[in-house]
Write a structure and sequence with these properties.
Shape: globular
Strand order of the largest sheet: 6-7-8-9-10
Strand content: 25-35%
Number of helices: 4
CATH superfamily: Aminohydrolase, N-terminal nucleophile (Ntn) domain
Radius of gyration: 15 Å
Order of helices and strands: EEEEEEEHHEEEEHHE
Number of domains: 1
Helix content: 25-40%
Structural class: alpha+beta
CATH architecture: 4-Layer Sandwich
CATH topology: Glutamine Phosphoribosylpyrophosphate, subunit 1, domain 1
Largest sheet: 5 strands, antiparallel
Length: about 180
């Protein structure tokens, strides 16, 4: 039996009152087996000014993160432009096109989702949920934004915990970074 690629996760970003939080769970699965419970799927890059999180194949995501860091060094004060340039390269390069991952990218001003289909999406409300547990975390975050006074980090933590309790590919070993 062939080994399946490591996949699935939950990445969530929330904005509130000038703070942006990006977090993820720690679970890595190989097929239907939990292979690791404490993976770190979020990174602080660009001199600490940009947060990224990835969902999908880990090897593919790391390849994309390396390329994104190069784009960010070309456009150090323009995260949106760096993401657009990455998406263009991702979509047009024959090798990159096969990568199966999604990235959530945030800085103080912008929250973006980038995919291999060439999509660069900036959610209207600044809330991003990607990965298998993304819809659960996104729903919880939107409810907490509307019905609580919690800050962005607390909302991200609570929402990721809820996703971890619902999604079998997500755990409650959560890490959240803020800007």
């Amino acid at each position: 039996m062939a080994m399946r690629a490591a996949r699935s996760t939950t990445i969530l970003s929330v904005r509130r009152d000038g703070q942006v939080a990006l977090g993820g769970d720690g679970q890595v699965t190989l097929g239907n087996v939990v292979a690791k419970q404490d993976a770190v799927k979020i990174r602080r890059i660009g001199g600490g000014k940009v947060l990224t999180g990835f969902a999908g194949s880990a090897a593919d995501a790391f390849a994309l993160l390396e390329r994104f860091e190069k784009k960010l060094s070309e456009f150090p004060d323009n995260t949106r432009r760096a993401v657009i340039e990455l998406a263009k390269e991702w979509r047009t390069d024959r090798v990159l096109r096969r990568l199966e991952a999604m990235l959530a990218v945030v800085d103080k001003q912008v929250s973006l989702i980038v995919s291999g289909a060439g999509d660069v999406i900036e959610p209207t409300d600044g809330v991003i949920g990607i990965g298998s547990g993304g819809p659960y975390a996104l729903s919880a975050a939107r409810a907490l934004l509307q019905h609580s006074t919690l800050d962005a980090k607390a909302i991200a933590e609570a929402s990721l915990k809820i996703a971890g309790e619902l999604c079998i590919y997500t755990n409650t070993n959560i890490r959240v970074e803020t800007l």
